[in-house]
């Protein structure tokens, strides 16, 4: 009997999983509750894959031997609950793809900095001449690449949602940057559930594998005490030097791996801000484990261009610098953004709240922010946190209105910062759409 694989969701990861399943001779059916985009419908037809859209036909789905689901579908959705009741295994695309690849997997997770670190490492590995693919939350579907490319290495950005559907997948190098409250709406508002999800990156690691982690993060430090892993532990810190694999000493970034010491001046890093020192340390350690030459590591850390929608300088208009940080979808990301500002800030904030505690931003807002523009359908929590704490706080119902309001409040030599600290789904398709609209409205001023 041919094994039947049903794929839920026909986006990048779903169609990629379908292509891989078909290439392995499985009976494949793809089901998407929404409308499939033209790009992916074309791909499904090209590979002669059976699919449906705008519905989930349960009689066809329940024939599955195994289901691969999109990370966007929560485990609590009625269809997933029914599948689990029927003992039909439900896995993520990454889990499925990992079965068919012998490539080295360098996997990155954390609440913040994942994309920057992933792209920085990919940049480094390409520069080193490795045959490397970029996958997970960024780049192309891992499954699609496993089906059609013959990469020796993959750099994979993993969200907690992807990790939740992973069981036998093994990372050769796992990087855990930080853990701060995020997506708590998907974890019953219980922080321990979210922490457990992030630590799944360690499952199945062996003694020849490496775990790179930030020891300045109290949650990671505490959790590691109760964590049993065979992987080699490679901690990094900007506060401590003793027993670290990566640290800062006299403004120098240092990495000691086995007998090799790597060192470079912190001011030569291409990306500004303390959070990027962490991202650079993590990337440099992974590069050292992979035995990439020191010159290549140094060059990569000094010429990397950064990530779209992450502290991206747009333009100056009449001396006011506009900065797009739309990728900041949680409080911690916004904390780092505000921390790295040197001029007075007009801050555009708001969207779909994921259980935010704005109190942690209070001191930074007092020190750096002169005005707030609330951009969201429900801004009550932002007002409750900051009314009376800044000179001006106003509401906007569109990006055009938000940019114009911010422009009116800001003066020459000041900054307008879009750093929403929230998800984008109330007014925008996603954070990219939000960032692109911001850039467009700024250029229209």
UniProtKB/TrEMBL annotation:
What GO CC annotations are associated with the protein?
cytoplasm
Q: Enumerate the InterPro entries for this protein.
A: Mur-like_cat_sf, Mur_ligase_C, Mur_ligase_C_dom_sf, Mur_ligase_cen, MurD
Tell me the domain of life: Bacteria
Instruction: Give one Pfam hit by family name.
Output: Mur_ligase_M
* Localization per Swiss-Prot or TrEMBL: Cytoplasm
Keywords, A to Z, come to: ATP-binding, Cell cycle, Cell division, Cell shape, Cell wall biogenesis/degradation, Cytoplasm, Ligase, Nucleotide-binding, Peptidoglycan synthesis
Record has Cell cycle as a keyword: yes
Which residues are noted in the entry as ATP-binding?
Answer: 110-116
Pathway(s) per entry: Cell wall biogenesis; peptidoglycan biosynthesis
SUPFAM superfamilies named among the record's database cross-references: MurCD N-terminal domain (SSF51984), MurD-like peptide ligases, catalytic domain (SSF53623), MurD-like peptide ligases, peptide-binding domain (SSF53244)
Enzyme Commission code: 6.3.2.9
The chain positions of domain Mur ligase C-terminal read 309-422
Single annotated GO MF: UDP-N-acetylmuramoylalanine-D-glutamate ligase activity
As its record notes, the protein acts as a catalyst of:
UDP-N-acetyl-alpha-D-muramoyl-L-alanine + D-glutamate + ATP = UDP-N-acetyl-alpha-D-muramoyl-L-alanyl-D-glutamate + ADP + phosphate + H(+)
Q: Where is the Mur ligase central domain?
A: 108-285
Q: Provide the GO biological process annotations.
A: cell division; cell wall organization; peptidoglycan biosynthetic process; regulation of cell shape
Name the major location. cytoplasm
Q: Which family does it belong to?
A: Belongs to the MurCDEF family.
PANTHER family in the record, alphabetically?
A: UDP-N-ACETYLMURAMOYLALANINE--D-GLUTAMATE LIGASE
Q: What does this protein do?
A: Cell wall formation. Catalyzes the addition of glutamate to the nucleotide precursor UDP-N-acetylmuramoyl-L-alanine (UMA).
Check the record and name the HAMAP family matching this protein.
MurD
- This protein is called UDP-N-acetylmuramoylalanine--D-glutamate ligase
Q: What is the lineage of its organism?
A: Bacteria, Pseudomonadati, Bacteroidota, Bacteroidia, Marinilabiliales
């Amino acid at each position: 009997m041919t094994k039947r694989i049903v794929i839920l969701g026909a986006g990048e990861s779903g169609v990629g999983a379908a292509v891989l399943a078909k290439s392995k001779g499985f009976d494949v059916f793809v089901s998407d509750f929404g409308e499939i985009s033209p790009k992916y419908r074309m791909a499904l037809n090209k590979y002669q894959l059976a699919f449906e859209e705008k519905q989930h036909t349960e009689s066809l789905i329940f024939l599955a031997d195994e289901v691969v689901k999109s990370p966007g579908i929560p485990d609590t959705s009625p269809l997933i609950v029914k599948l689990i009741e029927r003992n039909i295994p439900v896995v993520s695309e990454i889990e499925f793809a990992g079965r068919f690849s012998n490539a080295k997997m360098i996997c990155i997770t954390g609440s913040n900095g994942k994309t920057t670190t992933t792209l920085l490492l990919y940049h480094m590995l390409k520069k080193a001449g490795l045959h490397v693919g970029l996958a997970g939350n960024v780049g192309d579907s891992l499954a699609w690449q496993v089906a059609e490319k013959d990469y020796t290495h993959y750099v994979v950005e993993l969200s907690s949602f992807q990790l939740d559907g992973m069981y036998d997948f093994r990372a050769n190098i796992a990087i855990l940057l930080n853990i701060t409250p995020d997506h708590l709406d998907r974890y019953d508002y219980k922080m321990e559930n979210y922490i457990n999800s992030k630590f799944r990156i360690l499952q199945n690691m062996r003694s020849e594998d490496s775990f790179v982690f930030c020891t300045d993060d109290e949650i990671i430090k505490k959790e590691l005490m109760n964590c049993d892993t065979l992987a080699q532990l490679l901690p990094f810190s900007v506060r401590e030097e003793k027993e670290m694999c990566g640290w800062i000493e006299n403004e120098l970034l240092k990495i000691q791996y086995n007998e090799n010491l790597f060192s470079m001046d912190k001011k030569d890093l291409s990306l500004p801000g303390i959070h990027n020192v962490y991202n650079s340390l993590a990337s440099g350690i992974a590069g050292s484990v992979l035995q990439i030459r020191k010159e290549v590591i140094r060059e990569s850390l000094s010429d990397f261009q950064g990530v779209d929608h992450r502290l991206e300088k747009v333009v100056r208009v009449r001396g006011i610098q506009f900065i797009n940080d739309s990728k900041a979808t949680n409080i911690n990301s916004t904390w780092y953004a505000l921390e790295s500002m040197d001029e007075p800030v007009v801050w555009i904030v708001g969207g779909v709240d994921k259980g935010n505690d704005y109190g942690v931003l209070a001191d930074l807002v007092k020190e750096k922010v002169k005005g707030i523009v609330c951009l969201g359908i429900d801004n009550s929590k932002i007002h409750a946190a900051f009314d009376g704490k800044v000179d001006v706080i106003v509401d906007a119902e569109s990006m055009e209105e938000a940019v114009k309001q911010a422009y009116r409040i800001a003066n020459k030599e000041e900054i307008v910062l879009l750093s929403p600290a929230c998800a984008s789904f109330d007014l925008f398709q996603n954070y990219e759409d939000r960032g692109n609209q911001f850039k467009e409205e700024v250029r229209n001023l």
